[in-house]
User: What shape does this take?
Amino acid sequence: KQEVTQIPAALSVPEGENLVLNCSFTDSAIYNLQWFRQDPGKGLTSLLLIQSSQREQTSGRLNASLDKSSGRSTLYIAASQPGDSATYLCAVARSNDYKLSFGAGTTVTVRA
Amino acid sequence: NAGVMQNPRHLVRRRGQEARLRCSPMKGHSHVYWYRQLPEEGLKFMVYLQKENIIDESGMPKERFSAEFPKEGPSILRIQQVVRGDSAAYFCASSPGAPGEAFFGQGTRLTVV
Assistant: This one.
């Protein structure tokens, strides 16, 4: 059974600081890994998708890395802004099925 | 291209009533997934459907819960005789293939009173 862990559970930083969010998974036989953003009471917005053959993906200020062999992914958010305040979820799709296994999330607060 | 549409966004039901949650996938997507997010918990897989077929319902509670994705119309998650423990956010996701990039709807927040 795939277990996904996100550390830290919560993070508070001043505006302008870089954010580093960690995700680890127990079964390295993954098909892809997605990072999502969830605002309070809202749905999930897909931020980045990394296929198992890729090492990283970038979109604007966001960069996600994937190390399948060690079961880790890191989401970097450069020059954080108050608008980045949200919960960030990591989800893994296994190679032999289509279900996403989610971490519990990291709740980020960026202070102005 | 409209995103995944879920309705209603909020639903209040009394104990014992039925709840019907609807999900229209993105255009061109034939794979639909339902997830449940209980308060203070992560999202958990419930069921995976393709048109007219349930592919995997291993995450569905054994009783009172059912799902369908008919040839025409939205996918429906049906909860019969709701109890307080069913109060949660129910999210639908769609993808063009499985496994693929999943796009999520805004969710339906069910409150059982």
Remarks:
- Chain B has no helices and eleven strands.
- The first strand of chain B starts at residue 5 and ends at 7.
- Chain B has a mean pLDDT of 92.
